[in-house]
Amino acid sequence: MAEYDKWDIKKLHILRTLRERGTVTATAEALLLTPSAVSQQLTNLAKQLGVTLLEAQGRRVRLTDAAELVLRHAEAVFEQLERADAELTAYEHGEVGEVRVGAFSTAVPALVVPAVRALRTARPGISVQVREAEAAEAYELLGAGAVDLALSLAAQAPSVVDSRFTRVPLLADPLDLALPREHPLAVAPAVRLADFAAESWIFGGSGPWSEITRGACETAGFTPHQGHSAAGWTAILAMVEAGMGVALVPRMARVRREGVVMRELAGDRPHRHVVAAVRRGAEEGAAVGRVLEALREAAAGLGERR
């Protein structure tokens, strides 16, 4: 008979977090532990399992093949525990409970708020706690258990082979081009992204929005020259209005500014894909499932209004 007591769930969670965060220090910060406690727990887990889990690699540590094998099986355990927790909660409370949602800024008014309003009427026993988070951070929070559901952009969503999460596509959000009102193409009958290959572009220096802007321009046949870097729409549109460059703006953001013309792009119109994610197995919980359903309905309604 297998010695089940050597499979310590808490220690496996520490090992899993180390794989995600990369260093013992980052793992300790994520789990609110000290680095020495993390090291001690992983040393004990290695002794319990009878295999080497970590190898020194300069000042960092690397997971061994044995550690990857252990985690491959542990992921199935974590998924089953999420499912069990969801079913137990449903058994005890039915459609009652709090769901913590992490969402990027433009998704909050466009999707989360309409979903919360709908749930107040249809499922009053379910409450939603919203936490605004950048696209990449939302998945870190989800993996750490700080939120139950993450809304993010496809550029930052976990890959389809990431066994930790279940992804739910919500919306393909069109991107419009923001031009200064006096720009020669502001009143053109139609504009294409390629028409602006020589322009100065305004977008963030890193993160999903940078990836989305660069990817859209490269698909149109050119690499955008980043004249200015900004993350907030107020700053971006102020610079566009001043004639400092052009920018892609998501339709969902619904941002408008005097002196800025928003043009739909013909032919090669790019989109950003909005997705929701939960820890695999958690989608079967009544409360989380209802919030996902409400978000899908809010996304469908947004699409119809366009």
What would the principal axes of the Cα set say about the shape?
A: globular
The averaged pLDDT comes out at 86
Tell me the strand percentage band.
15-25%
The total of beta strands comes to 11
Helix content: 40-55%
Keywords for this structure?
single chain, about 300 residues, alpha/beta, two-stranded antiparallel sheet, globular
Q: What's a quick, concise take on this entry?
A:
The protein is α/β, with parallel strands linked by helices and 306 residues long. It is built from nine helices and eleven strands.
Describe the structure.
With 306 residues, the protein is of the alpha/beta class. The chain contains nine helices and eleven strands. The longest helix is centred in the first third of the chain and has 29 residues, at 65-93.
Present the secondary structure layout:
Blueprint lengths: L8 H13 L2 H8 L3 H15 L4 E4 L2 E4 L1 H29 L3 E7 L3 H16 L3 E7 L2 H10 L4 E5 L11 E16 L19 E3 L5 H12 L5 E4 L4 H9 L5 E4 L9 E4 L7 E9 L6 H20 L1
Helix pairs in contact: 1-2, 1-3, 1-4, 2-3, 5-9
